[in-house]
Every structure is written in C-alpha cells, then in structure tokens.
Amino acid sequence: MSTNREFFYRKLHSLLGVIPVGAFLIVHLTVNYFAVRGPEAYNQATHFMENLPFRYFMEVTLIFLPLIFHAVYGLYIAFQAKHNTSTYSYFRNWMFRLQRVTGVIVLIFVTWHVWETRVAAALGAEVNFNMMAEIVENPLALILYIIGITATTFHFANGLWSFAITWGITITPRSQQIATYVTLGVFVALTYIGIRSILAFVG
Amino acid sequence: MSEKTIQLVIKRQVDQNSEPYEEKFSIPYRANMNVISALMEIRRNPVNANGDETTAVAWDASCLEEVCGACSMIINGKPRQSCTALIDQLEQPIKLEPMHTFPVMRDLTVDRSRMFDSLKRVKAWVPIDGTYDLGPGPRMPEAKRQWAYELSKCMTCGVCLQACPNVNSKSEFIGPAALSQVRLFNAHPTGAMHKAERLETLMDGEGGLSNCGNSQNCVQACPKGIPLTTSIAALNRETTLQSFKNFFGTDHTA
Lengths: 203, 254
Prior knowledge:
The complex is a heterodimer of chains A (203) and B (254). With 203 residues, chain A is mainly α. Chain A has helices spanning 6-18, 21-32, 39-50, 55-78, 91-122, 129-135, 139-166, 173-200. By secondary structure, chain B is α+β, with helices and mostly antiparallel strands. Chain B folds into two domains: 5-110, Ubiquitin-like (UB roll) (Roll), CATH 3.10.20.30; 113-248, Orthogonal Bundle (Fumarate Reductase Iron-sulfur Protein, Chain B, domain 2), CATH 1.10.1060.10. Helices cover 33% and strands 13% of the residues of chain B. Chain B contains eight helices and seven strands, in the order ββαβββββααααααα. In chain B, the strands form two sheets. A five-stranded mixed β-sheet of chain B has the order 2-1-5-3-4. Chain B has a two-stranded antiparallel ribbon with strand order 6-7. In chain B, β1 and β2 (21-28) form a beta hairpin. The longest helix of chain B has 21 residues, at 228-248. Chain B is elongated, with a radius of gyration of 22 Å. The interface between A and B is large, with 35 and 39 residues. Chain A: Its main location: membrane. Chain A: GO terms for molecular function: metal ion binding. Chain A: The chain crosses the membrane at residues 12-36, 56-78, 98-115, 142-169, 181-202. Chain A: This is Succinate dehydrogenase. Chain A: It holds the Pfam family Sdh_cyt.
C-alpha cells in the first residue's frame, strides 16, 4: 500500500457530497416545503424531525462529520485551481469555476445558518416557523438566504454531474451531455423548492 | 511595391530566472507565411519595431507539419502549434507568448520534460524485451485499432496542460496527455499485461488521476482532437474497480 491517500480522499470527498450530505439536503429542503402549507404544518414537521430517534447520533454521523470533511477538503481543492475562464470561456470551464466559488459561498452560508438555527436551538431557542420568520423579516437576511440556497442547489446539482464522472458512471461525451440536462433539472427543481419555502416565511 | 508589414508582439525572457518583457516587431509581408517563417524573418534580421538591433527570438520547432508538438506556444491567447498558425488567418498584432505552465528556458522555448517524465512514470509503452523470441502478439480487432489510433495521435505538445486549470504551480497534477496514454497502452493486447501497474501509478502517485476537476478545457484545446475527457472518465471507472480489487482482493488478476 502506498502512503499517498489522495485518491482515497478525493473519492471520499465526492461520495460524501452526495451521500449523505446531498441526501440530507433533499430531506431538509423537502421538510422546509411544509412552510408553504402554513405555520402549523411546518411546526409539526420540524417537531417530527426533532424527535426522531437517535437524533444526535444521526446529526453527527450523517450531517456534521461528512459535511466538515467535505468542506475542509473542498477548500483545499478549490484553492488549488488557477482559473482561466477569460482565455477558455467554455461552458464546462465556467461550471468548474462556479463549483469552486459556490463551494466557498455555501460554506459561509451554512456556517451562518447553523449558528442561527442549530446552535441557537442548542442554547435553548425553539426552532419553529416564527424563528425563521423573524430571521427573514430583515430583507438583507432574506437576500442572503436566497443567494445561499441557490449556491447550495447549484453546488449539489453540478457536483452530481462530476460525481458521475469521478465514479466512472458517465464516460462518453453523450452520456455526460445527458447528465448535464438531468443535473440542470435537479438544480431548477431544488432551487424552486428552496426559494418557494423561504418566501413562505415572509409576511 | 507596397510595404505591407506584419506586426508581432513577443513576450521574451533572457533565461529561466529573468523577468519577461515584451518586444514589438514589424516584418515585411510575404504570401503564405506562418508564425515559424515570421520568426525566421526576425532571426534573419533581428531588428525590433523601433529600428533597434536586438537578439534573435529563440523558439523550438522540428517537423513543421503539426505532428511533433515542439513549436507549441501561445498565439493570440491560445496555445497551439506555430507551424500551422498561418499569418493570413491571425489578427494583428500577433501576440506570441511561451506556454508558461512549463519552465520557460528563453523567449518562446519551454522545457516540457515533465511530460516525458510522466510518460516514463506511467510506462507508456509495450514492454516486450526479453531473452527469447516471444512470437507474434495477439491480434487486435480492426475497430479497436482505429479507436486506439486516435489516442496514439498525441504528440506530447503540452497544449492540454497549458489549458488545464488544475495543472499549475500549486498542484502536482500529471495532466490529461499522460492519462490518455495509459488508456491507449492498457487497451493494447500486450500492453494490457501491465494494466494494473499503470492504474496503480495513477492512483498512488502524487498528482494522479483524481486531481482532475472536469473543467474539460483539455478536450477543447487538443489540436489532435483526442477524446481526453472520455479517456479520463474511463480511467475513473477502471481505477474505481481496481481500488475495490486492491481492497477486497481478487481471484481475477487479468
């Protein structure tokens, strides 16, 4: 066995981005969508999630640890690139750049979001419809949330596309082209769900 | 006779450690010139656009028919071979720069030895030397030979490394060219006997296959139209399977 773990770390980074972090993102956005049905439905849904058995164990193993690894190793990857979209303004080169830019945005957004909600909850605040409504009462916070959600869904959808290549699922140009359309659909659908939900908290 | 001229702006550098500078040249126009013949004109009469005597511009060239890769440089922003860069098709002033992903030796000459070292690292050949005649190797299906021929067009010119955002001073990434050669030699019926070894080099070595970030500039930039990104994705599948074999063990060694 070699001492170089780069291959393993890269593959792990790719895998964790989809399972469990990406899967969690879909669950999270779906639960948020209850806000569209009103405060009661939303509170009931979050209450259900809060009271899931093994909650802390699942939070740590399915969310926090994979997320931290993905974020830290992702930062290392992101700052290794020397962007050249001005010379090579191809679609994929822009996606390559945006993937790294959105990765950094998402890290900042998620840190802020966890601080405001999960850490606040740990310190005794109650997570409910009112909590989010108070946060997005501030128009600046609402704008930052919309940017954060869009960056997250983009990073996930485009990450799915490169996941398929990293694991050797899509090889031919045609399969990669089809994957582009599929992941574009994922991006549009998740962005709609995310933004519709956050707007439901506004007035 | 009208005095039609060609304007060139060349990024020059005295040696590996000195600072680059720009020098402008204005040379007489002739029909059907390429960048190489323009550089030869400067060598014949090394006078810059201000009329000052200067040193001749250094550059590399060999085959003059776009199969050796030696004359690659950045022409009007894009890396390509200067032998097939026709003056009549270029916007003037023509801007020439060395491919700065590689160490610049002088003016437009660069040291591409990292690419040749990579080919050695991945064993980009079919080892057949031995102590007795092994006889003819297995036959290759014609369809596969035609497919392999496309990959074999690689001339190690370095344009794909220049275009790749992940090949730079902060990264050890081996680059698309050598990766595609692994695919070529692993597909060869005799070369396939060293398939696992080549794959493991790409997995274990510093800056291996997994450093690819899928910007896919390489496949757009390749002057030979080699399906580099297809090779990379196919190797991703093969190394994934190889890593499972390495971890769990296998009774299927071929």
